[in-house]
Request: fold
Amino acid sequence: MTNALVSIQIIPKTPNGEDVIPYVDAAIAVIDESGVPYQVSPLETTMEGNLTELLAIVQKMNERMIEKGSLSIISQVKIFYKPDGASMDKLTEKYR
Reply:
């Protein structure tokens, strides 16, 4: 059951101070590969799914940054948890 929304802003420290956008693209690719619904916003990406699964995706995103050569990563994470169901559409429907 979808019981959580997790928003993440990932900020990798690049080896030579290069642009982080290719790293962020790789982090978003991890989400895409997972198959969970997600929305990319200018400053963060929000995923929808089971909290355990979403936290595992956050871990994979950080691991991917290390694989790409990042020296360290800051992940700013927001979690909305509702055991009886969470949905991006439900939370934002009044704005559509």
